[in-house]
Amino acid sequence: MFCVAARGRGGEKMADYLLKSTKGALVRTPEECDRHIKAYLESNPGIRDYFRRVRMVLMRDRRLVNSWGRIWSVGDDRYQDDLYRKAYGWMPPSEAAGLINSGWKALHRMAKDKGWKVKVHAQVHDELLMSTIPEEIYEICCLLYSELTITREYRLFPMDTPISLSVPVEFKVGRTWKGEKEWKGLPPKDELVETTTRIVKETT
Hints:
The protein is an alpha+beta fold and 204 residues long. It is built from eight helices and eight strands, in the order H-H-H-H-E-E-H-H-E-E-H-E-E-E-E-H.
């Protein structure tokens, strides 16, 4: 619900998303979804205020800028609903990507200095998929935890007073991206190494 409403999408998009994501198990009409979206927005007035402020900044500056200095420019696009929907959804993912990139760079530098065998396979939105060996995994997790939970100053719009935030970080290990064991924070060293060693032995 949040993803649909926060991007300014309507009931038709939500109905289609529900149908596809549940493989046909959850069917709702666009009209039903419109009512749910309306109720959600009414109970979370800050979202509509966010929409209003995004439009205001776009009309004034013809661009959005995140805390990393990354720019999303209107360019020659016309001001219409599709443009605004793209703008609504740009800022949060761009902030997450900037943070992940910062952690990845720190990992790359440390891996080079220490000769770690870690390899990053993919970066998707707010996730890093990598492989390593049990002997290195705890140090890698400690480094990423330190880099990714650092307190930074964010502001959605230039006129805002910056606010300091620290983003929570979760870890998963397993044979696949889905993972077999998950921690809502930095894992205990013994538990992490033991779990990773077991998975490696079962795989080989």
